[in-house]
Specification:
199 residues, four-stranded antiparallel beta sheet, two-stranded antiparallel ribbon, 6 helices, 8 strands, 46% helix, 20% strand, globular
Length: 199
């Protein structure tokens, strides 16, 4: 089963994921920080930094909703038959979502297992759709000047002339009933993001 998960991850990953606001862990974070320094220089007087953490992301991923999103994305670049096969494969894998706790075996109604090779991809499918449908409009209004995410950790710069951290948190926490975002505001003009102190 584990081998099947790895193969399906490779097959499904590229056609489904293409969001530019997600940081790849290699040079993406360095590039992100360079852009951040540039934005800070431009908007220093009116912008503040904040991070958000998505609480318990993996156990709160809505599987059926994510499968519908994946199907829509796959149909953009594949025929109906190929899409059906890929969605069936993904469904079979996600139905094998079991975990053990105190010698009891459980199958949760929602969410994905954190240790599964396909969990990150399933989370990305869901989160990228959420970003495209809900966050894009707040970014377009310039309320949030800069936004980047790595898995469940988000770094943003917001314009204090247009919004407040309370408004951002209220809006973001209403995006989906399964997700809860926990903010951390900058302190002394700096904030920590992935063990980096951003000044």
């Amino acid at each position: 089963m584990y081998a099947l998960l790895h193969v399906s991850h490779v097959i499904l990953y590229m056609p489904l994921l293409s969001c530019s606001c997600v940081v790849s862990w290699d040079l993406g974070l360095i590039s992100c920080c360079r852009v951040f320094v540039l934005l800070k220089a431009i908007f220093m007087s009116v912008c503040l930094k904040s991070t958000l953490d998505i609480k318990d992301l993996y156990v709160n991923i809505p599987i059926q909703e994510t499968l519908r999103i994946a199907k829509t994305l796959l149909l953009e670049n594949n025929n109906e038959n190929t899409t059906k096969q890929m969605i069936t494969l993904l469904e079979v894998i996600l139905q094998q979502n079991y975990f053990s706790f105190f010698n009891n075996i459980y199958q949760p109604e929602k969410g994905v297992s954190m240790g599964s090779p396909i969990s990150n991809m399933v989370a990305e499918i869901f989160l990228q759709d959420l970003e495209n449908t809900h966050l894009k409009q707040i970014l377009d209004k310039q309320n949030i000047t800069f936004y980047t995410r790595y898995v469940d950790d988000i770094l943003l710069i917001y314009n204090t002339k247009h919004t407040t951290p309370e408004i951002i948190q209220s809006y973001i926490n209403k995006m989906h009933p399964n997700l809860q975002f926990t903010p951390t505001l900058e302190h002394n003009n700096s904030i920590s993001f992935f063990d980096l102190l951003i000044i």
